[in-house]
Amino acid sequence: MPNLYTILRWSSALLGLGAIGVLLLGNSLTATGPFVIGALVCLAIGGRSMPAIRQLSFTIWVFAAVAVGLFYPQYFQRIGDFKFTSLIVPLIQLIMFTMGTEMSLKDFEGVVKMPKAVIIGLVSHFTIMPLVGYSLAKGFGFEPEIAAGIILIGSVPSGVTSNVLAFIAKANMPLSVTIATISTLVAPVMTPFLMKLLAGQFVQIDFVAMMLHVVEIIIIPIVLGLIINRIIRSGVKWLQTVMPIISMIGVLMMLIVIVSSGRDALLNIGPLLFVASVIHHSTGYLLGYWSGRLLGLDEQTCCTISLEVGMQNGGLASGIALQMGKVATVGLASAISVPWMTISGSLLANWWRNQPLKEEANLEPVAPRVSGL
């Protein structure tokens, strides 16, 4: 007798066929929504019993969140006078708080143990993505506020998602956490500085106001998380399991709100902006990897730097755009980048997971890697 996971996988296949059938019958694209979302949810849950699919579960949930935002934006835009975009900042703060509960002084041991890799990762992070973003903004000829949004998505730090993907990829987790942590802590200065330098010609940038916004959005919640970590975490073991789950739910909820809020604009300017996003993050992955490789770092470390460079804190970019009062324009790039980089990063991490490291192929010893999900 088939178990629940098997039933859900078959349900996913049938719903997928149903979506194709609805389209072939000439019905509207909206009519496929329940079939597409149902197929993805059933696959994400039903695939938990199959290792190959389980590795992609987060990616599948991301697809499902994007589909919800695209097919049913009206349910996640406003209720009466309440706008769902007002949830973006609290959700980012929740994710940053979660990051704080997972942090300790040990996260900074990487600076001492592997200073070269940390420096290369941080320098690459705050040079490659901002400069590539500026080049794309100029090259594509976007309107000023759209162009500023592309630079903004390149100027924010990395975050929790990059750590999750480094774990999936069996990359250098201590390095990933160290780069993400330090890039986040210096963001109140680096992000406004890069925006003033590169995006100042497109929109007016208030350096001090943006710095205070970043402190409010990420630094204060992280500090509170550290305090909670210090006070109760050692005595509450379940917190170690619950907080990462809360963080991932927060990421998916934020993704739905961001996609819903920019859905109409995405359908208009989306294709061109999507192409720019693909180039932006793909270049970040590529140059991030080779910035380490050319400077003599091992394969595992280069994979880590690649993810830390290519993966940006898109939620923070949306939060800053919201605080600027330009979430529908400056925030549009993040509305596309968040789902794309999460999906592309997940696929890249899963691909790396199944590739033998070059050092392994040459039968040279390598550092132990994190066990799989």
Summarize the entry for a quick read:
The chain has helices at residues 4-24, 33-46, 51-54, 57-71, 88-101, 109-113, 115-140, 144-155, 160-168, 173-185, 187-199, 207-231, 238-261, 263-293, 299-310, 314-323, 332-353, 358-361, and strands spanning 78-79, 82-83. It is mainly α and 373 residues long. The longest helix is centred in the last third of the chain and has 31 residues, at 263-293.
Summarize the structure in words.
With 373 residues, the protein is mostly helical. Helix content is 73%, strand content 1%. The protein contains 18 helices and two strands. It has helices spanning 4-24, 33-46, 51-54, 57-71, 88-101, 109-113, 115-140, 144-155, 160-168, 173-185, 187-199, 207-231, 238-261, 263-293, 299-310, 314-323, 332-353, 358-361, and strands at 78-79, 82-83. Strands 1-2 form a two-stranded antiparallel sheet. Strand 1 and strand 2 (82-83) form a beta hairpin. Helix 16 (314-323) packs antiparallel against helix 17 (332-353). The longest helix has 31 residues, at 263-293. The chain is globular and about 55 Å long. 52% of the residues are buried. Mean pLDDT is 83; it is low at 359-373.
